[in-house]
Amino acid sequence: MTVDSGAVQAGRRGRFIVFEGGDGAGKSTHVKMLVAALRKAGYGGASERPGLVVTREPGGTELGVRIRELLLHGDEIEPAAEALLYAADRAQHVAEVILPALGRGDVVISDRYLDSSIAYQVGGRGLAEAVIRQVNAVGTGGLEPDLTILMDIAPGIIESRRGGSDGALDRLERAGAAFHRKVIQRYRELAAAHPERYAVVNSSATKGKVHGQVLAAVSRVLETASPPRDAP
Fold first, then answer.
1. Which of 5, 27, 99, 207 is placed for a possible disulfide with 141 were both Cys, Cβ 3.0 to 4.6 Å?
2. d(Cα 199, Cα 217) in Å, to the nearest integer?
3. Which of 44, 149, 42, 63 minimizes the C-alpha distance to 101?
4. What is the SS3 assignment for 204?
5. Greatest Cα pair distance in the chain
6. Distance between CA atoms of 47 and 33, rounded to whole angstroms?
């Protein structure tokens, strides 16, 4: 069963914000900081502000949790099988979490979405972009974020942040420096190709400065958000 693209657009009232970037770029930290700021502003509470849904890929659903374990901590996986597992996680995620929340008028914040597959499976693994997009279209119905925040950072800094023993790293983090450089380069190409929805943030700056840039980008999107949940 595919997600109907017309129904996706017709039922969309909320705002969809995605954080992207290489492993170690600071996504998780700044997702938490953004969520705290939005909750303080009344999102997701009893106020007239929209609801707030915070999720991630892979692992945003019960099925996704099991897929995440396979992808990050399982045995070695062929690139094509890896891509299909990510697409399966995303299809469930869109149908079970993202679309219902957007239909309610909520703000959805996701740690990763489709562009992760383009960066990692196309940029890093070398699979064909047209194939990855076609496979994912089955489950997303063409749903795109209103805003994609790219936590951009030099590959060398990411490598130093990961550091430590290989035993503490997941399967993707162990993929090697050359792989991660290609991932970062593909992200930069995506941002250049889609400036209308990308905000590129230098995540090697101070935490406060990065947070300020994230808030500025998100504020511009939420200014045109849907009416409050209780509005007629």
1. 5
2. 7
3. 44
4. coil
5. 55
6. 20
Tokens of 127: 């699979």
Contacts 24+ apart (CB under 8 A), 170-173: 170/72, 170/73, 171/71, 171/72, 171/73, 171/74, 171/76, 171/77, 172/23, 172/71, 172/72, 172/120, 173/23, 173/24
The residue written with tokens 């030099």 in the block is 154
**Edge-to-edge strand order for the sheet containing 15-20?**
52-56, 107-111, 15-20, 147-152, 198-202
Q: Which two tokens stand for residue 188?
A: 């930069």
Helices (H), 25-167: 27-40, 62-73, 79-93, 99-104, 114-117, 129-140, 155-162
Nearest to 60 by CA among 107, 108, 26, 122: 108
The whole-number pLDDT of residue 4 equals 65
* Structural tokens at position 46: 């009893």
Question: Is this structure's pTM higher than 0.85?
Answer: yes
Give the span between the Cα atoms of 80 and 165, in whole angstroms. 28
Mark 13-29 as b/e (b = at least 16 C-beta within 10 Å): bbbbbbbbbbbbbbbee
Q: Dump pLDDT digits (tens) for 187-220.
A: 999 999 999 999 999 999 999 999 999 999 999 9
